[in-house]
Amino acid sequence: MAEKAVSKEDFRIYDTGRFYKQMNKNSSNTMALAPNTSSKRETVCIFGTGDFGRALGHKMIQSGYPVVFGSRSTQTSSLIPKGAEVFSHAEAAQKAAIIIIAVQRQHYNFLIPLAEILRGKVLVDVSNNLKINQYPESNAEYLAQLVPGAKVVKAFNTVSAWALQSGTLDASRQVFVCGDDMEAKQMVMAIVRALGLTPVDQGSLLAAQEIENYPLQLFPMWKFPILLSLGLTAFFFFYCLARDVIYPYVYENKDFSFFIAISIPNRICPILALILLALVYLPGVLAAIIQLYRGTKYRRFPDWLDKWMLCRKQLGLVALAFASLHVLYTLIIPIRSFVRWRISSRIVSQALNNKTEPLNTTNAWLSDSYLALGILGFFLFVLLGITSLPSVSNNVNWREFRFVQSKLGYLTLILCTAHTLVYGGNRFLSPSSYRWYLPNAYMLSLIVPCIVLVVKFVLIFPCLDKPLTRIRQGWERNPQYSEQSNYIINKSAV
Ligand code: NAP
């Protein structure tokens, strides 16, 4: 749910999604998985008969590759995939041009005496570590140092042995591949494709560390949105508890503790939905201000802003979850015992006084507008959530995606902010709505969205929008490089 800066990962997903669809359409790829392929596949050697080596060997044999294992023990066992042969490391290495090192990094020393045999061979490093950045260099770079004559390629580390063996590869079809030798990388990528997986070229071996850290990350983009929403939930829970439960107990001796079950959560959910939705769009306006101030787009944003931009989609999805909860809580309001008691006691009091309250059309208008804005806002919110899913965003072009995420996104923010403003109605200025000088919680929720909308509105003015558009097209107020070159030209002219 981001306005503009879709992360590098999103592009990756976008590209590979299309690529994969293409692959599915291409019948030659289905052929690749069949063992009886007409073109004979080259033998692949796997060092290590552990879980991963065996699982990969099994999958390769299924895909039509002759497989030989290099092991410390040449005795074959029932665990070795049918059709594969087991040799000593030196013997196995001589039978194949590609050798997959399915051994933990700490045992790589056994490769040093084999350096001559491995010269010119493609060594595929599949290893992972136990901790992020565990070693100063990546395992693949370490392997390249140990066997300098070999062409090292990093691949397969993001696929688990279990997924390979059980065939449940839906979530991990992408195989990140990197290496300095283009030809070696292409050979490995061809194997990846033949196994029915999707290779994603990550560039040179310098990318290996990042690829090795990848399986160790736990929902990296979700950390900030989840921690932030937990913090805000705790804050607003205690805020509402103080205002709506403790205050009436202290001053009016009324027990509203049951508010904790539904009333307070139904106050917190829309507040969080609105604040988090505004936080999706706040970094966009901050970035615009920074670019206008600097007069260039070629200087990096501060790290915190970069990170914030990258997790906007997750922030939006968490906001949508809170909005959905708010809808559910609202739907059950009429069946709540407290609400039914309040309505019936009002009717009884009107009957006792023999007086019917006249219909207040202003209130009717306010309540209907409030509901209509909420319904429309939620509908667009859901639309935003759906279009941010990779399966949907893969099917729209960049302009369509931007239109939905930016234009409809701002419209959603406007509708949801208006929904909250109308809910407040004339209570904003009423002193009775301030308890212990604390305003109603929904008033606090309006701060960030109002700031975002006002700044965005100001940025639409042509005097700011025009220079901003030019900056985003590459124009610079003080072009750094041409100034330097002018200076050099001027100096040499003197
Ligand atoms: P494993 O079950 O412990 O097997 C490692 C194999 O390495 C052993 O079976 C052994 O094979 C060989 N080995 C052990 N000590 C050795 C030594 N001192 N010298 C030479 N070879 C030795 O480990 P694994 O789970 O298969 O993982 C292998 C590699 O794949 C690791 O780098 C791991 O990070 C990576 N990986 C694993 C998974 C997974 O799901 N398991 C997923 C992605 C990547 P021999 O007895 O045949 O010599």
Automatic annotation (TrEMBL):
Stored SUPFAM superfamilies: NAD(P)-binding Rossmann-fold domains
The prosthetic group or cofactor this protein requires is: FAD; heme b
Membrane topology category: Multi-pass membrane protein
Q: Catalyzes what? A: 2 Cu(+) + NADP(+) + H(+) = 2 Cu(2+) + NADPH; 2 Fe(2+) + NADP(+) + H(+) = 2 Fe(3+) + NADPH
* Molecular function terms, GO-annotated: cupric reductase (NADH) activity; ferric-chelate reductase (NADPH) activity; metal ion binding
Q: Which Pfam families match?
A: F420_oxidored, Ferric_reduct
Positions of the Ferric oxidoreductase domain: 271-416
Q: What is its main location?
A: membrane
Q: Which UniProt keywords apply?
A: Copper, Endosome, FAD, Flavoprotein, Ion transport, Iron, Iron transport, Membrane, Metal-binding, Oxidoreductase, Transmembrane, Transmembrane helix, Transport
Q: Does the keyword Disulfide bond apply?
A: no
Would you indicate the residue range of the signal peptide? Answer: none
Which residue ranges traverse the bilayer?
226-251, 271-293, 314-335, 369-387, 408-429, 441-464
Kindly give the Gene3D superfamilies that the UniProt entry links to this protein. Answer: NAD(P)-binding Rossmann-like Domain
Q: Give every Pyrroline-5-carboxylate reductase catalytic N-terminal domain span.
A: 43-129
Q: Name one GO biological process term.
A: copper ion import
What subcellular compartments does it reside in? Endosome membrane
Q: Which family does it belong to?
A: Belongs to the STEAP family.
Q: What is this protein called?
A: STEAP4 metalloreductase
